[in-house]
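thought: fold this chain, then report.
action: predict
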Amino acid sequence: MYSKIPTISFFTVLLSLFLNNSRVMAEHMVSFYHDKKGEIRRYLPSEFAQIYQERSPEAQWAINEKLTTAHSNYEMTFQVKDPETGKYDKIVSVDSNGLVIPFPEGHFSQLVDSSGPLLRSLRDLLQKIYSLPPSEWTPKKLNLSHVPLKAFEEIIAIIKGNIYYEEKYTDSSLKDYPFLPVVGFDAAISDPETIDPVFFEYNSGTPSGITNNIQLLEELKKIDPEIFQSLLPYIKNDSTFKTLREIIERNAFAWTNYKNGISVIIGPGEFNAAHPDVASISLFTGMPLVQKEDLYLGIDGFVHLNTGKESFDPIVTGIYSRSDESFILQSIEEGIPAKDPGHKEINEELSERLNLKLKPGVLYDYEYDEEGDIIDVGRDSEGNPRLMKVYGSFGKNPLDPKIELNLLKLIKEKRIYLSCLGGRTVDDKKIFDLAAHYLAPNFRRNEKLNKYASPPLAIEEDLLKNEVRDLKSLL
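observation:
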């Protein structure tokens, strides 16, 4: 029923140039702007090509530096682990390269299309994973009978070992759930003449940076107006935000079968570095940016947006969430924890020191010393570690505060659609590799593809062999 529900992918097309000196820069410029005969590539605008031919490497380097600073000022940065302190408090700016690489539209279309079979195969896998208990994860029931045994076992091991896999999400109704409506890919164009992109990874959890394209173009317009004006006639109107809203609304309708609902956005909060991106998406899509407290369960069994006038509160059937699924679905009462990979090592150290059995990545009710370091975990009356209660909770019904909103229950009852559900379960480079080789080919439609989206490094040679195997013991 849901085979035609759309899945979209946003690409960050990266040109990785390792600029050790001006000579390296010049060589790379030639390779992307000139063909093997040294002539200007046929599809490059003449004005654009002339500017780069006459521009010195030093001048381009100065532009790159200005772009890096500009984007850093707009929080195009990452917070990483500081090797000296061991804390995730080191801010790293993203180097911006102002070398614009135009290439034929058909190449880009095929770049996007190559992700289709992969995404459909991952959606099918998640539908099986979250509609069946782990005890029933056999090759036949997971639609993986064609996959080599070692590859199948590796897929299962990765999913079970993923801190984000949550068995409590499992419900038979999810066999039709439209998982993965939005996935972000990082890819590089290796040759502008042929369609042979290199995919580095995908983000199927809460992909960010959709508004970066606007920011990139705006800064290019200010810092390098000469190049911007030469490209302006060739830049198509951006329908990204219109498409994003359509995708969320169509998937929400497909899941709930309710036509008159609206879709909203829930972000990670105003103190999160992604907040400007999320707020901009709300502005450009027209989907309201709300907090969990703004949503409540109506007496009709649907989620409503609290507008301050109960009679006007619209029904919400879709949530585009940039808040992590474990945070938005966290429930201490049901034992569903919030999770964070940064707490794997922390929990391991605490478990050993305090003689506790803390699960990897699960967030607990930590106790801190004066310097902000975790020193202990709160316990309940029976001595068991307490789960952390995340910031923010769903609102109360204004007419009957006793009515509480259980989002996971409503998802299973097909009353509401959550975009990020299950996404992080398959957000793994090895899953990317295995799915591209063994799952995606079975989900190809009419795409005219040279290749499927896949990471650059091949999986082990023995997994690529077309060995004959006996699955009787697993079926």
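thought: worth noting. The mean pLDDT is 85.
final: tokens above.
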